[in-house]
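The protein record filed below.
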Amino acid sequence: MSKRTIQSPFFMFNPKSYLYGEQLYELAQKADKLAQSTDVSIFLTAPVSELSYLTRTTKHLIITAQYVDDMQPGRGMGGFVPESARDAGVQACILNHAEKPINYATLEKLVLRLSELDIITIVCASSPVEAKAIALLNPDIILCEPTELIGSKQVSPDNYIKDTKEAIHSVNENILVMQGAGISSSEDILKNLSFGANGNGVTSGITEAEDPEKTLEEMIQTTAGFKVTE
């Protein structure tokens, strides 16, 4: 397996632990069809228990682990080793989310290890300073979101979007920048892309929407439309 090519702009649906089982599978099938018809790179994260099923039942999504553990195959009760993710068909992994933080030394090891396994690395950062430090590790994507705005339905300020991208690209211009805080509408998607984001990550904006499937489609179509017109 080799790393998937990421089309920009891209889209991530990160349902965390809000969805699992049939609810998750139905939205995955919808997203899979949209990934095929729009040619947008769509990341779908899922709980560990759902990853293998999703990699077997979708063709066009980039199925993404919400974390991995810094451990080798062997002893380690309840651990999730990177090699297990790879063998389950996982193609990307989020690291250092505010709800699953890790220290810098561990982050450095995991970015390198996942890259060696051809798994796309997506590392979370809260501030421009943290984003710049993480850029030194050369992940594929840095997901920028102020911790205090996660789940708030309040998107990041314009200057934050610009400042995080500038900080990251001052180190490595090849790193893709994702914005992820408080996104709840297609207007939020357009705003972030217009201010320089390469992609958007959404959780409660979809899971808590009145019609999650419709909202998912609207956000992906908005991303696709921006891709065509820019």
Remarks:
- The first helix runs from residue 21 to 38.
- The chain has a mean pLDDT of 92.
- The first strand starts at residue 10 and ends at 13.
